[in-house]
From TrEMBL:
InterPro entries given in the database record: RutC-like_sf, YjgF/YER057c/UK114
Family the entry assigns: Belongs to the RutC family.
Its EC number(s): 3.5.-.-
Record's keyword annotation contains Cell inner membrane: no
Protein name: RidA family protein
Keyword terms: Hydrolase
Organism encoding this protein: Sporosarcina aquimarina
Keyword Hydrolase: yes
Amino acid sequence: MTNFNAVSAKNIENAPSGNGLYSQTVAFSHYNNLSAQLPIEPTTGKLVAGGIKEQAEQCFNNIQAIVESIDHVMSDIVRITVFVKDIQDVDAVDEVYKTFFPASAIARAVAYVPARTTVEASALPMGALVQMEAVVSHGDGTPPQAVEDRHGIVIWANNTENAPKCSLSTQTVAFSHYNHLSAQLPLDLKTGELVAGGVKEQAEQCLKHIKAIVESIGHNLEDVVKVNIFVKNITDMDAVDEVYKTFFQGGIPARRTVGVSALPNDALIQIDAVVGNAEGTPPKA
């Protein structure tokens, strides 16, 4: 790295070690990126005893230990990604989730919970039932942020009536120059059920929700910088791409496509996104 591109990495003893392969948290500018946490007890290096609830709690305990080690709190997390071995375990995970992210307890101008994506993975390291990763806002920033340019953390969150709402996630959470959108399922706004049809109809519904959220914060789809697509059947991507091109005609956003074992609501597809936020939230670069 150069002197003008300083990255700050940290490891602590109160969370599982990366064994020299990765750092627990790496910060650059106004974000800390946490490595995915398994339900490992730091003292033993083994999976915690118990089932999905105990494993979910251990994942969050590890995340909290890392977050607090960099002088932050859980309410500074802007995005959470949850990987489960069995999508049916999500309800149990959510019970634990609520104890770590009680929206009413967050001291912000706008109460919020992090943007979130949840998928079922075919397998996780060590045979774990759950694994979680997080992105944390970093108010002070890392060099080359000048001291006079550093500010307190201000996070801006928003929900619109034109996309599905969830008590466990905020549709979009912005910090500095990025808006993080929660993963969108192909749900009918009126019924809360999956839209009728196949993968094309579901892909279109997901992208309509993304578009509605993006427009609700004064942006358009041209401001999207990254799209993540999760599909139940990877062979559906040709059909998905037909729909995708009608929303992103310039093909500008960076993109990731992953085949997953299952998605919430037994959906065929789920999409999340990151939006460029030119005006930024304090602190501005």
